[in-house]
Batch of 4 targets.
Target 1
Amino acid sequence: MLRNFLIASLLLLTAACGPAEENNKASEGGLVYVHAGHLIDVEKGIVLDDQMIVISGERIVDVKPWTAEGAPSGVIDWSGYTVMPGMIDGHSHLLGDIQSEDPMAPLEGTRQDDIDMGVINALKTLKAGFTTVIDVGSYRVFSDVELRDKINAGEVPGPRMMVAGAYVTVPGGGGEVIGLDAGVDIPDEFRAGVAADADEVRERVRYLLDGGADFIKVIATGAVLTVGTDPGEPEFNEEEIRAAVEEAAKDGKYVTAHAHGAEGIKMAVRAGVRSIQHGSLADEEALQMMKEHGTWLVADIYNGDYIKEVGTAQGWPEETMRKNDETTETQRAAFRRAVAIGVNIAYGTDSGVYPHGDNAKQMPYMVRHGLTPMQAIQSATIWGARSMSLDKDVGSITSGKYADMIAVSNDVLNDVSVLENVNAVIKGGKLVP
């Protein structure tokens, strides 16, 4: 019954949006042309007026000033819009249902239920203008790999995905399903990343990479939303995090660390992780270390408000609400300081805690807490691409990159909240219906 409901929901979501008015009719000689009224060049941090974007297949082949004389006959007319690259969410969880008060929720559906919900979540995310997501973990091992592969094969619509395969976590740590009644059996597929020492970390990392993970996510400290863990306390030690980094490096892959507490952040930075997720309790030393090492900060600074409102209304555990209160404003203060001293910033929201498709609700928070509107957009485009070495393919509207772009009707640099309602999306040269 649940699967039938999910499939029906997907069909309704797709049908409700209707066909794109100019769906790939704007082609001439195998090329697609887009007339951009205003084009945000995120690499230079400037806005160009009246531009023509030329697309061949999935990729951009030219960007040049628009001239009406000699223009192709069928053009995607975005002359009344501001055009910018498709956005990147650097901290997403597409698989399964969103966060709830029930610790049993991850176990109640089947693997197929998780993937079916992931299909719905992926479409919502894509239609919201996020054409790439870094999916930083799901409880069921490789369910994210399966969804990514379905999207890549064209079986279902969705953003480009980089996936972690599963969380690498200590037994009973922030990446485990815990808080359950005694005697509840947790299937092995929920514990594929559990490791008790450096050798087991290497084994778990190798297993995940061999199974199709694009990068590795280690849970370096406790978590706000995992009952019984302390966000400020380290869970893996530096040697164990370094073991993950070294094993991933054998395949040219990176490690990102879930880390709220300052000591956990410092250990992760010294161990060589690519990015820190959350960073809620980062102190000055931790932030200065991140700047020195070039470590990226991916801070979900919208999430605390959502958790407070919805968690209170739905009766989420008292411990969760207390930890959320203890980390929300400290995270924002750390973010402001990180911006001020020049730490690398990438946009990431923890979507899956809040409803998918609302990813851009964090954008005004980025501005409120230190970034300029242009920098906030860069954090969700070119900076986000650089944070995971994806900038050869995505992150800007540049010749050679995938033709991933969005159109908005208002001045986004005057009010970044307009990104909460994008007017049109192109992914891989095709309008998203």
Target 2
Amino acid sequence: MEFETLLLEVEGPRATLRFNRPEKKNAMNPRMHLDMNLALDQIEAEPDVKVLVITGTGNSFSAGMDLEECFLQPYEDPQLFYRTNLVALKWFQRLKAFPIVTIAQVNGYAFGGGFEVTGLCDLAIAAENVKFGLSEINFGIFPAGGATWAVTHNMPRKQALHYILTGDTLTGREAEQYGLVNRAVPAEDLEAEVDKLVGKIINKNPVTLRLAKEVYEGTTMMDLPRAIDYDQAKLWELARLTSDEWINVALKQFEKRSYQPGLATYKRPEAADDAQRSA
């Protein structure tokens, strides 16, 4: 499927999704919101994909919402205004809970919604010189649609409030310092750094990756006894869905000293991959 505002490539276990409105610095308009939902549908239906990388074309990741198309133009029609922006909230929520690993490859300007997508992805790597910002305060509102949630769940309180209240920008290097991204690297190394991270993830069991995300999200607001009960239930789920691969394959290989878990990943049998795809 081709999209008006996105470019999607699926290569084996990796999907790459690019915001593609470079003439608008990849600002998110209503068409892009619709396209994102369709693209996520397509990626989720791909049985082999383990990682989704999100990036932008041109010199921007995303400048955030298209202020004219999302706000000014539909404003006089309350129902249209509501529908236009509700679509965005749906795909933001889907991205946060997406069943495969998501990586933001932040190649350029990331403001508002672009800042939010960075915060919603599981992992993020940025070029050192990119600019992040929450400029909403500069046109009279606060970061909404989940943007405030994204900054408060990725950055310390004082830094989060500073950028929310001032509209100041921060660099990729500062974003790394404050926890918004995992790493900031020279722009020329960005793709290679993301490729390296993808390479580490695609060798893992896809069911384990999904359940590891679910356990993390599910236990963040639990006390320790409830968290242990929850993760034990998920371990039983993992065992059932993978035929105890962690015991029957991974630890059997460790028993033969064919790999060291602290340094490498066990070799997964193709038969297990085929069985999981057909499940």
Target 3
Amino acid sequence: MINRIAFLGCGSMGEAILAGLLGSGLKPSSVVATVRRVERAEELASRYGITALAGAEEPEANPLAVQGADVVILAVKPAGIAQLCREVAPALAAGTVLVSVAAGVSLAQLAAALPQDQPVIRSIPNTPLKVRRGVVALSTGSGTTPEQLSLAHEVFVSSGLVLDVPEEQQDAVSAISGSGPAYVFYLAEALAAAAQEFGLDEDTARMLARETVAGAGLMLTEPGADPAVLRRAVSSPGGTTEQAIATFEAQGLPAIVAAGTKAAAARAAAITEDLAGR
């Protein structure tokens, strides 16, 4: 059970995780967050009732925040993760679990900047955490116990599906679920653009695309939902939908999607290598 949690960095993703935790019943008094700007700290404190510290006002904000924390969420940009870990290392309790949400930062890179045997977990969350339909994949460091992993699950479970995967699968997870929402948004953009080519006005086109994608997504959340079965149910033989799907197939859409996800995974691996060389 989480008694105290610290968010080091609380941008869009950090705030999504924070909102899910508080929505699940965690008391605001159990949370401290650090950000750079005073205005952002005041905004978070006012919106959620948490303690928020601004580095611009309190240079020791990060070490102060981690003191006594059961879990620390590392939510700054990847390039700053190692320095952040070194900054807070002296203030960490031996059993404090650090959970990184920074893309491309490996467990080895995190461990190298932390005290020996500090429990550390790498996560790949996605933006639908904001609406509690997210997906989060967790990979644990060698010194992390099942009980400590359970604390990390507690952080995310109120905001979506939580999976445990080997670290070597993190790039694949990043390419599918981490970046995946952007692919869906891209589809909605393309549908809206196609609607405008038919002569529909921009507002109507966007509304049709948005609600169609959102509604189809909800159908996929039903127990036992299978995208292929759902697709076939809409594709009457000889009908309009079947013709559209046949055209997508002929134009190579499945291969395009596969190529895009492979490029995303390769970029994730390259980021890890780049960070390792710094």
Target 4
Amino acid sequence: MNLILQSLHQDPVALHNIAHLAGGQIVALSQTAWRCEGVEISASRAVEIDTACHAAGIDYALVPPGRQLSDFKLLAMDMDSTLITIECIDEIADMQGLKPQVSAITEAAMRGELEFNESLIRRVALLKGLDASALQRVYDERLQLSLGAEKMLAAVQAAGIKTLLVSGGFTFFTDRIKKRLGLDATHANELEIVDGKLTGKVIGEIVNADVKQRTVERLCAEMGIAPEEAIVMGDGANDLKMMSIAGLSVAFRAKPVVRAQASVALNFVGLDGILSILGQ
């Protein structure tokens, strides 16, 4: 296997120590990425590497030699705290003076401690009566793309890979991000708005973990590809089902339960970290 190491800062001593643990020679791929080739790592040694990397602020990934971005045909992404830096519902709630209450429910749901449908219903109910203009304010004033998002998408789209944004968040934001970034498809929850105000309800089926998985499967079927030809990225427990069917699952700034089950985790570098992992 190849061990890919990535960091936003260079620490030659830490890199040397990790390469020694892996039993390989380190080769620089860029100013932020390095590769150890032909390594064989036992379970106990993997724990040592994980500990050393985390302490040094280094992301690592074990990948088969020759694995390329061109091996994949679809990139499916979660939105909140993955493609973008915020949880939109928390920022909407801040307009209502209820961010702490809503954020606590969001965190519990993303850790897998609270069933997603229940958590969304509870959170959206707290928004009842809020002027719908608050959604535009959140988009204009608070929504930012995650580090490396544009570089990653430029490479993915140049490679002819289709893009899907599938979110337990809201269509107000996914629709605008789709247009802004030239994404191929989106699927999210629709907030009910009556007379310019949020009613505290969503319209139609809630986009939970099962719906996210079905959305990825449906798009793969429409494209005539296997789910193994998809890269799926997420950060919360409601992303685990769609990540489990992917050929490559990427945990980005993710909760521990997600990092533990993903193919690779990006805790320190940006979303474009998948490019170094896939030979770009």
